[in-house]
Amino acid sequence: MAEVNVYIQDDLLENEDSDAAALGCDFYAACAPAIAAMLDAELVSADRQAHAAFPGVRLVG
Fold first, then answer.
1. What are 44's strand-pairing partners?
2. Sign of torsion, CA 33 54 58 20?
3. Could you give phi then psi for residue 16, rounded to 5 degrees?
4. Mean per-residue pLDDT of the chain
């Protein structure tokens, strides 16, 4: 599997702190949907609490 480096822009992170608080998850879990969208990738997650509300997320486990 190839390594992927993602450089996050400030505007992407503007709402992630409030999203994390609203979702009851940590900052990194709140960033996952935005990063997946930025990469035009599907978000696959086992974190139902943090990601179930985001459209297009495939929940596993």
1. 58
2. positive
3. -70, -35
4. 81
Tally of helices (H runs) and strands (E runs) in the chain: 4, 2
Whole-model pTM: value is 0.65
* Residue 45: strand pairing partners: 59
For residue 59, the cross-strand partners are 45
The C-alpha atoms of residue 17 and residue 21 are separated, in whole angstroms, by: 6
The identity of residue 30, as a single letter, is: A
Tell me the two tokens of residue 37: 């969208």
Q: Are 30 and 45 in contact (CB under 8 A)?
A: no
Section 25-50 average pLDDT: 86
Q: What is the DSSP letter of 46?
A: S
**Residue 56 is encoded by which pair of tokens?**
């297009």
